[in-house]
Amino acid sequence: MGTWDTGPFDNDTAADFANALDNAEPEACEALIRGVLIRTIDATGYLVEADEAVAAAALIAAQCPEGEPVDTPYSLETAMPMFPTDLRALADEALACIAGDDAGSASNWVAQEDWRQWRAMLTRLRAVLAPPPPSFAPFEVQP
Questions:
Q1: Backbone φ and ψ of 111, nearest 5°
Q2: How many angstroms separate the CA atoms of 48 and 116, rounded?
Q3: What's the pTM value of the predicted model, to 2 decimals?
Q4: Residues 93 and 53 sit within 8 Å (Cβ to Cβ)
Q5: Tens digits of per-residue pLDDT, 67-124?
Q6: What distance in Å separates the CA atoms of residue 92 and residue 24, rounded to the nearest whole number?
């Protein structure tokens, strides 16, 4: 596997995932993304699809109010359909699994600075994906 930078599409596996999404019908893109997220969440042991899950999470985060567009030469060539909001929680959960997997993707970094940049990218994505806290009206206290 080739990795050339710390972004969500900066490795061969994620670039191949982008190609698969480009070649899929628009209505199939959601199923591909949902599938990779669920398989990552449900995985035991090595997270085989971690790179694809990070790329999927970046695509979902790009559609969120605070999200950044995914704009690299290795990402998608076609626009993605709007994803349902429930994918945000799945993407956040998948990223939590990846970030907590010390034996997987986190261990692949040779340079400590690259590892820190990659972790910071995961943290930024999770901050965008995390659902806002519920807002409650303050209770009126009667004497």
A1: -85, 130
A2: 22
A3: 0.86
A4: no
A5: 999 887 777 888 899 999 999 999 999 999 999 876 566 556 667 788 889 889 999 9
A6: 24
